[in-house]
């Protein structure tokens, strides 16, 4: 066996060993005892067959339903009251579908709301969408790691600052609000608030049920506020 072949074999064994160690580490992470093994939350996913006729009619309009009749996704736990899930879905469609924000601002606003509520599901789902919409990965890193807003686009900094103040301080200062109106207009500023709060509502449901990422998906590190 020549040296090149030995090197190839050694590299393959190294990769195999590394993968096994990662899998072992993931499998030995202790999860809270009150989590459902499928939903990775304190409540199981709803099943259509267990709902009454009225609830089934609403269920059939919601995203996240599967062919086998299980509701997953961002409305999974709001749907314990189906009317609430429908209202939240309608709010999402109004805030996102009928809003005036560019895809760039909208996706960054979503990322900020998910970061501020430690909402793993939608963070993981929207990170690729944010990059596709033109949000610099360095800006996403700043949001994820809760870093200072130095050296980034002024509009991106405004969106992040606005969200941090709204969610953490429970107060948006005059300068930040004025900058938002200057950049987005009055309607755009309120559309940004609507988008952030729409995603934060689902994030609060995830907080209540202690929803964890599914296997193989990254988790946001909790930030102190």
Count the DSSP helices: 8
What CATH calls the topology of the domain at 101-208 is AhpD-like
Largest sheet: none
Write down how many β-strands occur, each being a DSSP E stretch of 2 or more residues.
0
Please bin the fraction of helical residues.
55-70%
Question: In the CATH hierarchy, what is the superfamily of the domain at 101-208?
Answer: AhpD-like
Oligomer: single chain
**Rounded to an integer, what's the Rg over CA atoms?**
21 Å
Q: Give the helix/strand class.
A: mainly alpha
CATH class of the domain at 101-208: Mainly Alpha
CATH architecture of the domain at 101-208: Up-down Bundle
Q: What can you tell me about this protein's structure?
A:
This protein is mainly alpha-helical and 225 residues long. Among the domains are: 48-94, no CATH class; 101-208, AhpD-like. The chain is 60% helix and 0% strand. It has helices at 3-27, 53-59, 82-97, 103-116, 120-132, 137-145, 154-169, 174-208. Helix 4 (103-116) runs antiparallel to helix 5 and helix 4 packs parallel to helix 7. The longest helix has 35 residues, at 174-208. It is globular and about 50 Å long. The termini are far apart.
